[in-house]
Amino acid sequence: MDSDHRENGDSTHNHVSKKPKLSAFISEEEIRREFSHHQHGIARINNGSFGSCPTSIIAAQKEWQLRFLQQPDDFYFNHLRKGLLESRTVVKELINADYVDEVSLIDNATTAAAIVLQQIGRAFAQGKFQKGDAVVMLHCAFQSVKKSIQAYVTQSGGSVIEVQLTFPLNSKEEIVSEFRKGLEKGKSNGRHVRLAIIDHITSMPCVVVPVAELVKICRQEGVDQVFVDAAHAIGSVPVDVKEIGADFYVSNLHKWFFCPPSVAFLYCRNSPLSSEVHHPVVSHEYGNGLAIESSWIGTRDYSSQLVIPSVLEFVNRFEDGIEGIMTRNHDNVVQMGEMLAESWGTNLGAPPDMCASMIMVGLPSRLCITSEKDTERLRSYLRVHHGIEVPLHYQAPTDVECAPRDKDGLITGYARISHQVYNSFDDYFKFRDAINQLVEQRRTCKMLFTE
């Protein structure tokens, strides 16, 4: 990196500890107070969708907002850039990046997809890539990523290969095998794979992907660029961007790292490609590198980005810091997933070692889930009548002979349960009992009303 970039943020000597330094860890009562603003009486087992922000971080955010409102000019000229650099330095240390300039703070993973795919689209439009060259992705990629490909890549002449994964999954080897097939298809007829998009943790259905292994395969197969969509990763699984080896890696900080919405980091590995990557909102920092472009995209509320150091202090109040939180969340969600599957006589969607802080649990076949509309109806019913918030998934059987079954028939519905520090086992017992009650009453999804 040149000297200008180092002045913009190479904080080699500013080590940020991931480990707690407090003599007394946060108590259960303090945890309850930190999340006392959550609506009472709701079994909130869907942290994966929107995350959760503690009261102390909400207070820190309000302080930043007030500082701006009190004296905007002083805030902009003397505090904003410095505060964002401190936040980026925290992220740099957490993910083991080489340079802080490799870390940009943006709104969310959707913004990152636009950043990465816009530069791919420009390369097609400028003739750097040939018409028909491919982007390879998992079929269960997040919908906004698929829409970004449609908007920026296919309209410019690129083709898309979707790697079909079976579900439920039994091993990571199944993912690796199908991914290799996708790359082979992308390279057929003399084409090149210009970009591979790999989820670190798929959203729905959820499973932890062997991302480092897939990136290594991409390098062996001559894939130009690799973008890891890790929306659920930071705070849920260990993240080491150098070990993973991708060109781009994004993760939301408001899902599993307790930041207020919305904030994410986008890691862009330092390379000649860096100058081709730009924020989709062009402001007067355009051309100064993505990290600096992202630090000012016009007048807006930057407070969710500025509280990241305060969030690190919060997680360090827990035993073993963020590593301890991840371990306990994983252990608890697996325990609760196994409890639900045993009670309902169903199955898990993947082995425990392929789950992080979320796990898929089969729903009883007697609910007669035959479409996404059925899962939407059941989800609304659980919210309105039982105070349970949990996402549900319809899985159409592709091979009836091999599809999972319970004692009454094919399992075609799954619940994605999450565990975060505010959850208690009672949340999952409440969910268990609500489903068991429906089965005992012989009520199917089509019989449910939410009003």
What does this structure look like?
- The protein has 451 residues and is of the alpha/beta class.
- 41% of the residues lie in helices and 13% in strands.
- It contains 16 helices and 14 strands.
- It has helices spanning 3-7, 28-34, 47-50, 55-70, 72-95, 109-125, 143-152, 172-186, 211-220, 241-244, 290-295, 303-306, 308-315, 321-344, 372-386, 425-440, and strands at residues 43-44, 103-106, 134-138, 159-163, 193-199, 225-229, 248-252, 264-268, 358-362, 388-389, 392-394, 405-406, 409-410, 413-418.
- Strands 2-8-7-6-5-3-4 form a 7-stranded mixed beta sheet, with helices on both faces.
- The longest helix is centred in the N-terminal third of the chain and has 24 residues, at 72-95.
- Residues 1-15 have low confidence and may be disordered.
Count of individual helical segments: 16
Order of helices and strands: HHEHHHEHEHEHEHEHEEHHHHEHEEEEEH
Helix content: 40-55%
Straight-line distance between termini: 60 Å
**Low-confidence parts:** 1-15
Order of adjacent strands in the largest pleated sheet: 2-8-7-6-5-3-4
Biggest β-sheet, characterized?
7 strands, mixed
- Radius of gyration of CA atoms, rounded to a whole number: 23 Å
Average pLDDT rating: 92
Strand content: 5-15%
Query: How many individual β-strands?
Result: 14
Shape: globular
Structural class: alpha/beta
